[in-house]
Amino acid sequence: MKISQIRIEHTAGHAILRADCAGFDLWYKFPEQYPPVLSADPFIAACLLISMAKNQDLQLEDSANYSPTLLNNLEQLQHIFSYWQPYLKHQLNTIKVNGGVAMEPANANNDTVSFFSGGIDGSYTFNQKQQQIDYLLFAKGIDMQLSSDNLYQQAYNCNEQYLASKGKQLVPCETNVRFLGYHHQLNWGVCFGGGLSSIALALGVKKCFIASGLTYENNIPEGSNYITDHLWSNHHTQIEHHGAACKRIDKLKVLSQDPDYLNILRVCWHDHGYNCGECEKCLRTMSSLRALGIECNTFPKLSDQKIKQRLRPLKLYNVHDVQFLEENIEQAKQAHDKVLTEALEHIKRNFQLRELANQFDDLVLHGYAHKLKQLVKKH
Predict the structure, then answer these.
(1) Under a CB-based contact definition with an 8 Å cutoff, are residues 241 and 225 in contact?
(2) How far apart (Å, rounded) are the C-alpha atoms in residues 324 and 327?
(3) Is 278 exposed, middle or buried, given 0-12, 13-18 or 19+ CB atoms closer than 10 A?
């Protein structure tokens, strides 16, 4: 997998770091007062798992500079992700990085940053680490489509005003790194640790926090986690995973003590309004809010009727989401909310029954039911 034509381009008010990654034009766009670093490191981080899945070495153009520190870390990263193949559902082969020039980037950027979009994990990290953070990054193209100009601007304005009240600046940036994986049939959940880290490496900051979605107790192998995230660091930029000591519902408890935050809370990635109120992630968050007795203007109220009509029929397909479900069940029971508890437990039972059916198919039918289902879909 070849990485070539690494360059920085300047447009009106912006600087763009970009490269050709095996025919995919990968780019990172920042305001001109926050110029990116000319280095192969962001592209190596973004492409590593894709190259492993394709079983292709990374080939850098001869003039490309890369960090020996990052390259040394790649060996351990590859070992870890290779062990996680059954969970990530991709065959991940050990590859090499060839070409280029070993050179630690000369960089005077000593800023500490974190990602902020109004969601619970990133907001909790800001809440806990705001004294260390110089400014926050809101990356268009990560949790919303690049074409969603109006929604991005709406969310940016809300987040900017909130952070300004805390004495912090929100810096807008854009990238298509999320779509690099999709281009090569890898979903974002597999490669988002390297993808988020690549934004920090492109900007060349001194330190970047990546907010944890899971806890130490319930960690499962995925693209970003406390085991691997720090290994995306190079000599200058330190990547730090944060928040794995706290469950998401407990993060929401902490954040709800700030009424101003509840006016900007946004978790939806469906680009249908600020929060669509219909998707799994919205309904999950609305369940947490109801179980905690928190009112939030950025979501519709989760009424008994909506629980029965929209929440109860919800199907989960990822054990990651079941962990959040279990947090909500525990809190709903503490609140003696029978309607919510029954609906959430129904969702969990449905997931468990489908998991049992899949195991039966694997162990007894040798995958025949899955193959038949795929065949029906094709026709």
Answers:
(1) yes
(2) 5
(3) middle
